[in-house]
Amino acid sequence: MAKTSMIERDLKRRRLARKFAAKRARLKALIKDQGKPAEDRFAAAIKLAELPRNSSKTRIRNRCQVTGRPRGFYRKLKMSRLSLRLLGSEGKIPGLVKASW
Prior knowledge:
Elements: H1 4-32, H2 38-50, E1 73-74, E2 79-80, H3 81-89
Antiparallel strand pairs: 1-2
Helix pairs in contact: 1-2
């Protein structure tokens, strides 16, 4: 089980990323637009830098919904490989059969 503080920190980052997503996208589009004056693009870059760092989407860490484990993460199921195997062995995931040969 991951530390509760790490899980909460990641949830905070997800909330911030959702809150500032539109503003970040608008500023990035303005920065990339070569038709705009350099002063406007530079001002947009400064405004983008003033936004909270944790509002960036790249700072979000994929974590298991069951245990909070950050590694061995399956995006489709939103859980780690260990949780997947445990729940699969208990028969709680439909259609999942543990391999044996």
